[in-house]
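User: Structure please.
Assistant: Input sequence and predicted structure:
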Amino acid sequence: MGTDDARVGPRQPACAFRVVGHGGGLRVETRIPGGDVNPYLAFAALIASGLHGIEQELDPGPALEGNAYVSDAERFPSTLREAIAALERGTVARAAFGDDVVEHYLNYGRTEQELFDRVVTCYERERFFERG
């Protein structure tokens, strides 16, 4: 929950996007990428998705009011597996960056997920010892 909420909220820190500032400093802030993001890729994706929304005249819907943590708003993927599936189904990234780029990132994501799936995590070790 939290920043995976896909709606916009005014001064709403739990939303993926929020409107902050006032006057000439009014702006939309995204809270989706983490500190390990490739900034060039993140900016390109934000610009491409914004242009897509403008060109398609997409309605962002009403601003989220109330507690974003318990809202019924659509959510962004919260796991790598979910993100891979969303990118596979999506069309905006392919239109913006081309099939080769999207397939490269899908391959990277699938490879990382496969490597992770082969590892027994610390949580699993501790949990199995508890139950053993």
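Residues 1-63 form one domain.
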